[in-house]
Amino acid sequence: MEGPLSAGREPSFERVVCHVDMDCFYAACERLREPALEAEPVVVGMGYEPDDDVGAVATASYEAREYGVESAMPISEALDCLPRKVDAARDPDLDVGDAGFYRPVELSFYESVSEEVRTVIEAEVASADPDGTVRNVSIDEAYLDVSAVGWDDAAAFARRLRERIEEAVGVTASVGVAPNMSTAKVASDAEKPDGLVVVSPEQVREFLAPRPVDELHGIGPVTADRLAEMDIETAGALAEAAPSTLEESVGERGRAIHRHARGIDDQAVEPVGRPKSLSSEKALSTTDDEVTKRDLVERLADDVAERAAAEDALYKTIGVKVVTPPFDVHTRERSLSGPVADPELVEEVALDLLREFADARVRKLGVRVSNLEFADAEQASLTGWDGDGSDETEDVPRTDDPATRGQTTFGDF
């Protein structure tokens, strides 16, 4: 929640807040699996099945948006704007060059890629500002407080963060940097895709003033229409309006959006809840060399165990993630009889699970501990396994429990 603020209070000159927003994230994930989709119009549909016309657009790539395809648009309308490539190839009245690719939502895969992005973000924040915090608010966006970086180095930090995400994961992010969360979000949208906008404290009011009101946090279409009836269409006009008048027109949110229009927002960047899992993963040159794979898993297991120790976390489940070309994700995990904190066991179990992929060519590996407990409790026997000791062997990562999304640390694969 926002702290109590006076109408004349100016934003802090000390805080450095970044808003990281992945560009057309679902479409970017589909391009990871199918590199041939790069630079092509891509539409990802929720409730959509190939060769069907039901469902709604979850994400449209920027190339698809040029044809009028928008998020939440029915697939049937999207197809009127942008036919499928396969349909255009069959219909002489359609131009294949003005057609696109449609894919159904594969949320578990997108969440897997999201966790890779979060891993990069956590590492970069920890390196730049040991006291920094991360608030993951959705599968494709996060706020960072990296105040220790300082304004002189804020742009360099944000630039490096974007570069590391693209290098490590293969997707692009737009980053906005500002003294507070609401302004940083506006900044991240200002030059999409692959944008970087830094708004220093003294530039906040000037940056916000010409922006349409619906770009501000907390203003949707209904509120924007009400403000337009008051001849308030920009943040600058909103900043000059009387707070009491705004409250009468749009309710109690009137004062909050008035503060945001003036660049005033003391909401802290706070993590959301405790993590349900911790993981570490790393890409490598595609290889089937068993020694290389084992060495990497040993290092990842050590890293995960150290992170768990730093969080004072016990874990009931140990797992590995194996990514094989082109981008097929496999997970294996083993459940213990109770919570433990044992680095040697993490390594032992991870290596044992890896044996299934001894001959496989892999491009990325990961190790995870999950089903975490943070309360003081006696550890279970290290030799006891749940049930019959069988491993879970899903080849598609499980969809996160909604309660685990937005965690500050590494989360599920």
How would you describe what is shown here?
This protein is of the alpha+beta class and 413 residues long. The chain folds into three domains: 17-24 and 110-261, Reverse transcriptase/Diguanylate cyclase domain (Alpha-Beta Plaits), CATH 3.30.70; 41-99, MutS, DNA mismatch repair protein, domain I (3-Layer(aba) Sandwich), CATH 3.40.1170.60; 277-404, DNA polymerase, Y-family, little finger domain (Dna Ligase, domain 1, 2-Layer Sandwich). The protein contains 14 helices and twelve strands. The chain has helices at 25-33, 62-65, 75-81, 85-90, 107-128, 154-169, 181-190, 204-208, 221-229, 235-240, 243-250, 253-261, 290-310, 343-354, and strands at residues 17-22, 42-46, 56-60, 101-104, 133-138, 141-145, 173-178, 196-198, 277-287, 314-324, 328-340, 362-373. The strands form three sheets. The protein has a five-stranded mixed β-sheet. Helix 7 (181-190) links the parallel strand 7 (173-178) and strand 8 (196-198). Helix 11 packs across helix 12. The radius of gyration is 24 Å and the shape is globular. It starts with 16 loop residues before the first strand and ends in a 40-residue tail after the last strand. The relative contact order is 0.12.
